[in-house]
C-alpha cells in the first residue's frame, strides 16, 4: 500500500501562497516523472503533493508519511512558506493554476469548478493481483467509503467562514463530472469500457480525469481510494491506510470465495457520502449495514468489524485500535480546527496550529 498526500503552501500569515514551482525547483524535484517518494506539483500553485513508496508494514508506512511531510516542509522553507495538512484554506484565497497545458485547458473548460479546486486530499493505493481482482474490489468497497471520509474530515472552513460541514472539500470536489460512487462493473472489460465512454463524451480531457471514489489506478497496479481529506494528524493518515487495505483485502477475499457483491444503489452511496462530509465524526452517519442513521462511533465500529480478519492477518488490529482511540480523543481535524477558532477567533491562528500538528 502507499499514500499520496496533498498539502497547502501558506505564508507567514497563514494565507495560501503560489510557490509550488519555486519550491520544487529550489529543492531539485522535477515533478511527476519522479514517481513515488518524491515531491510533485498539483493542480494549483498553492499545493505540493507527496507520495510514499509501496509498503507492506504499517510502521514503515507511518514513518514514510512523516518523512514526506518533512520533505514538503524542507521545500517550502526554501521559498519562505510552510506546508500544512488542511483540506481547504480557512483564509480567503484566489487559486493559481499550475502553468501546464493540461491544467490550463481544464481551467478554461471547467470554469469556476477548476478555479476553486484548491482542495487537498489523501489517496490510498492498495495493490491488487490484476484487473480482475481490482474490479471485484471496486464492486464491493463502495458502501464503506463514506466511513473513510468521516474519519478524515478536515475542511470545515471555506473562504473565511465556517461552512457547517466537516469536509467541505468533499462538496467542492463533487462538482467534477466524474466524481462520486459508481455502479458495479463485473468485469475489467466493463470497467475500461465505462472509462473509455466517459472520455469519448468529450467532457473530460483524458482517463486521468475519471475521479471515481475508488478506481483502478492509471499509474500503478492498485485500487486507488480517493474519498479522504488530507488528514491533519499523520497518525490519522496511517489509520486511513490500514483501514483501506483492510477493505481491499476483505473485498478480494469475498470475491475469491464466490460471495456476490452487495446490492449497489449509487443514490444511497452518494447520500451517505454527503452525510459523512456534513457531520464527520460529530453526528450520525449512514450505516452500510442497514442504510439507516447511526452514531458515528457505531458505524466506525461496524467498519472495523467488517475488516477485522484482514487487520488481524496483516498484524494491524492493535495499531488500528490505538490510532482510533487517539482520533476519538481529538475528534479529528475538523473538530480541532473549530476548537482552535473558538479559542482565538482568528483563522490565521488556526492555520498556525495546523502547521504544528501536520509535522507532529
Q: State the secondary-structure class.
A: alpha+beta
In angstroms, what is the radius of gyration?
19 Å
Helix content: 40-55%
Count of separate DSSP helical elements: 15
Indicate the low-confidence ranges by residue numbers: none
- Order of helix and strand elements from N to C terminus: EHEEHEHHEHHEEHHEEHHEEHHHHH
Describe the largest sheet.
Answer: 7 strands, antiparallel
Q: Total number of β-strand segments? A: 11
Strand content: 5-15%
Average pLDDT, rounded to a whole number, is 96
CATH architecture: 2-Layer Sandwich
Number of domains: 1
Question: What coarse outline follows from CA principal-axis ratios?
Answer: globular
CATH top level class name: Alpha Beta
CATH topology: Creatine Kinase, Chain A, domain 2
Distance between the termini: 22 Å
Features of the shown structure:
15 helices, alpha+beta, YbdK, ATP-binding, 360 residues, two-stranded antiparallel sheet, Creatine Kinase, Chain A, domain 2, 7-stranded antiparallel sheet
Provide an overview of this structure.
- The protein is α+β, with helices and mostly antiparallel strands.
- The protein has a single domain, classed as Creatine Kinase, Chain A, domain 2, CATH 3.30.590.20.
- It has 15 helices and eleven strands.
- Strands 1, 2, 3, 4, 5, 8 and 9 form a seven-stranded antiparallel beta sheet that branches. The protein has a two-stranded antiparallel sheet with strand order 6-7.
- Helix 2 (58-77) crosses helix 9 (234-256) and helix 9 (234-256) packs across helix 13 (317-330).
- The two termini are 22 Å apart.
- The mean pLDDT is 96.
